[in-house]
Amino acid sequence: MPEIDIYDPRIMHAAILQIPPANTFLKNLFFSTTETFFTEHVDIDYYKGGRKMAPFVSDRKPGKVMDRRGFTTKTFTPPQIKPNRILTPKDLQKRSMGENIYSPKSPEERAKEFLAKDLIEMDDAITRREEWLISQIMFNGQVHMIGEDVDQILDFNFTNSVELSGTDLWTSPDSDPLEDLKNWRLSLVQKSGFNPTHVIMASDVVSTFVRHPVVKDLLHNRRMELGQIKTELLPNGVTFVGTLNEIGCDIYSYDEWYVDDDTDPDHPTEKSMVPPGHVLMASTRARSTLLYGAATLMNEATKQFYTVEGTRIPDTWVEKNPASRTLALYSRPLPVPHDIDSWYVAKVI
């Protein structure tokens, strides 16, 4: 039986498909649909609002032509994400973590372990970047992609946002968080036709919300079928706070962070996926897609370029002097919300 080359692209791609996907709350909730392109660029279609009614006409007049609902198309080339790992002969001679001292593994066995571990860790890093992209788009309406020779902004012209001030802040006893949520829900239904299904709050907002006198009074008034606040811890930093029947939404908090080393590489800072003081109201029924551009690689055997379509594209190459093998994982993700008016963002504290 011929020996299997673990670095064959088909073998590596099959290995990637076997990796359990990392749990990401925003991605799983709002961008679970994916689409791949065979080109590096992707075409983005999105639209805003529109509630025209069919016109009345006389029996003696012909029907009136109605304009089709317009949409905006942008062609965008997502910057390439390409984490890589280098494997050297020295790495294969070292005992790996947890390896039995008295039953050492062969370099070939360690090479397989390195391949599996590196693919998993690079896949996790790309997944975290995808969650960051979604967070930026949903809370800012745009995403600023910064990297080595990369400085691009993709703006969706998002306008459903507000920053409260004065006595409207939820930290003020004179504010009314429930009335705010009802107004934002009504605005979304009016603009997009979608009923929101989820409200996601930063942790500091949750604490302020559940202790607000208006919320406490209504929740304890049995004559009002408002809903139920019942905190429940879920995996991966997600907390189910409760349900508000009046707006038809479940409330969650999401505690997840990322290290921002793009803005200032010399001073990386840890930031929240859900910005402090913010509330996101959105619908899982609105159409959103996570698009992926293709990657162009070179075949080492034929020395020819070829293009590969996929969400994760592995590649590997060797250097003879000094001897090393580089393993890379390519991806060109771009989250696209097609219904721009289907979510609302507010800074409430």
Automatic annotation (TrEMBL):
Pfam families: Phage_cap_E (PF03864). InterPro entries: Major_capsid_GpE (IPR005564). This is Phage capsid protein.
